[in-house]
Amino acid sequence: MPTLTASRSSLAPVLGVHVALAVAGAVVLSLDAPAKGWGVLVTVVVYVFALRAACRRAGARDLEALASFLVAVSVFQLLPDWVLADLIGTLRFPDTGGVRVDDVIPLAMAGMWVAPLFAAVALSGGRPAVAAVLATAIFFGAELAAPGLGLWEPTGDTHRFAGVAVYVLPAEAALGWATAVAFRATRRLDLVHRVAAALAVSTFYLGALVLSHFLIDVAGWRLTA
Q1: What are the contacts of 17-25 at 24+ separation with CB within 8 A?
Q2: 87-121 confidence digits (pLDDT tens)
């Protein structure tokens, strides 16, 4: 799989989509509710379609396949977020407008995972270990910025570093690794297998989140007799 930096000229449309995403994101995130929530939803939907079209225009078939796979992963990522917000109580999504799932999570989150995972896997060249490192760095930046942008924020009694809940970082590294592994394993399989793999990635991520939260924030690490 080519990386975004390896073929800059041929991948100009893909880079252009991400520049446009950054500009549009800056505009909609400056709006007040409810326009802000609706703006984020529209921006995410347009980005997903534009990314696939840009990859096709660039002739980057692997990246087009990756973008399609990540749409399925991102939709399933609603489930881990829902568990964190509605069951475990370590995550909150402010109501900034737009459609919400069970009045807990903005529907926009169903597409918001595409961009960071696309960057992590594409820039890693599909290498799982590198994707894990890149995902950790990218998501750490997202976790730093999200509360100030009104997208989401950590809640509950968790260990924090610079305002970021520490337990999410190992899980997000695991997410980058699992996404690269699952995409490579199912790249040439049929749609059913690819969707199943996307669900498996989100399920694995949820398990990593719960385990990491338990080990870092809950477990007492003491022996008794």
Answers
A1: 17/47, 17/50, 17/51, 17/54, 18/115, 18/119, 20/47, 20/50, 21/47, 21/115
A2: 999 999 999 999 999 999 999 999 999 999 999 99
Beta strand 105-106 with 164-165 is: unpaired
The pTM assigned to this predicted structure is: 0.93
Tokens of 44: 């995410």
- Close Cβ partners of 209 (under 8 Å, ≥ 6 residues apart): 80, 83, 84, 167, 168, 171
Asked whether residue 3 carries a pLDDT value surpassing 80, the answer given is: no
Q: Are 98 and 40 in contact (CB under 8 A)?
A: yes
Residue found by looking up tokens 């040439």 in the block:
188
